[in-house]
Amino acid sequence: MKFQPRLALPRAACLAAALICPAAAPAASNRMKELMARARAEALTRPARVATAADAGDFGVNDDSTLAIDAYAFQGAQSAGDQFGDDGNGYRFLEATTSGGYIAAAVQLPSGVRIDNIGISVCSGTTGTLTLGLFDGGAFGDPITLVGSLTTGLLDMCYIQTVSIPGGFEHSANQEHPLYAVIHWEGPLDGTLKFNSIAVYYRRLVSPAPATATFNDVPTNHPFFQYVEALAASGITAGCGNGNFCPDQPLTRGQMAVFLSKALGLHWPL
After folding, report:
1. What is d(CA 32, CA 201) in angstroms, rounded to the nearest whole number?
2. Which of 177, 11, 199, 57 is nearest to 110 (CA)?
3. What is the pTM of this model?
4. Which of 117, 130, 192, 196 fits a 20 to 30 Å CA distance from 157?
5. Low-confidence stretches of the chain (pLDDT beneath 70)
6. pLDDT confidence of residue 39
7. Neighbouring C-beta atoms of residue 247, cutoff 10 Å
């Protein structure tokens, strides 16, 4: 893959925040409106729900990991004109805006994950809503993709609202596909509509299996082919010698130490 240097943030970042490219701010505002109108329209086709204690995951590979992004990570689309307040408990609210009520933050996930759900911790009154949209920025001129969206309800309480992403969204490359979260204020600017954080729920994926086998005794039709190839490609194992992996041989405690240390990146601190 050829490296292409950049002198500024990706195009999607300017569209989302207009922070380092002020000349593009008017266009960014129009593009922002277009993207968030699409996000709201999609959100209304799949209503979000209030999360409960039963939604909390257990430890293990079958449950999602959670990336939480607090309200202070978000910046106004027009930093000179958007004014935010704080309720003293970590919730932020919009007091005044010149951008139309758009705020954005970068979402930094590891490569090789599937995004299953998004959510927001919000307090709302009986009027006004927030729309949250998660976007794949698509660097180098690629189109911006709406990953998922939700619109909050009129519950007159503080709650966590989540929505699932049908089929999940596979995020495989950070540099070529930066992720951004955008929130649009669609309600009163009196502090009754406020949010504390958003959450992105994801799980790691094993890399797709290659077309050819690395080891003679783990052919492409072997039930563990994908997983053995992932270990080899990660440098965790080089096999047992003579071009073989020896999938049926027992593992010693010493070999286990090598596998785990390489896989987890364990090291002694300086």
Report:
1. 24
2. 177
3. 0.76
4. 117
5. 1-29, 47-49, 51-62, 78-80, 139-141, 270
6. 85
7. 16
- In the β-sheet with 179-186, what is the strand arrangement from edge to edge? 75-76, 102-107, 179-186, 129-136, 145-151
Tell me how far the alpha carbon of residue 93 is from its chain's centroid: 23
Domains of the chain, first to last: 11-204 (2.60.120.260), 206-270 (no CATH)
CB burial of 72-91 (b: ≥16 within 10 Å; e: otherwise) equals: eebbbbbeeebebeeeeeeb
